[in-house]
Amino acid sequence: MNSKQVAGPSPAGFSIIELLIVLVMLSVFALAAIGVYRQYTASAMRNLAQAELLQLGARLESEYTSANGYPQLAAYDFPETSPTYRISISRPDNHSYRISAMPVANQAGDGLLYLDSLGERRHYQADNQSGAYSAW
User: Fold this and answer.
1) Is 2 among the domain residues?
2) Which helix H or strand E contains 88, and what residues bound it?
3) Does the residue 3 lie in any domain?
4) Is the four-CA dihedral 95, 61, 49, 105 of positive or negative sign?
5) What is the extent of the structural domain holding 73?
6) Is residue 59 situated within a structural domain?
7) I need a labelling partner for 98 at 20 to 30 A (CA). Which of 21, 33, 105, 121 fits?
8) Is the torsion defined by CA of 110, 41, 78, 135 positive or negative?
9) pLDDT means per 10 residues in the chain (136 residues)?
10) Is residue 6 part of a domain?
C-alpha cells in the first residue's frame, strides 16, 4: 500500500502579511527615491542660476568692452530668471558690478550665489552665520 498524504488545494493568492511586507518595502524605496529626486532638482536649479549669472556677467563684460563702462542698470534688460532664484545687480561704480542670486520658494535653504566683475564666484550657505563661503 502506498501511503501518500493528500493535501488540500494549494492557496491561490497572497496572505495579508505578504502584502503588507511588499507595501512597506515599496514605501521605503519611494521615500529614498523622493529624497534623491529633490536633491537632484535642487542641484539642477542651482546650476541653472549659476549659468544665468555667468551669462549676465558675459553680457556686462561685452558692454564694458564696447562702451568702456558697464551700462546703467535701470536701462539694462537682463533675462527673466527662474522662479527659484531672484537675481539682482549692484554697481558700486562705473567699472565694477556685483550679481547675486537669492534662492526663493523651494530653493530657499540653498544659500546665496554671487558673481562680481573680477570673476569671483561665491556660494554662501543659508545656515552660515560666520560669513564663510565656497567657490562654485
Assistant:
1) no
2) strand 85-90
3) no
4) positive
5) 16-134
6) yes
7) 105
8) positive
9) 60 86 96 93 89 89 87 57 80 86 84 91 79 80
10) no
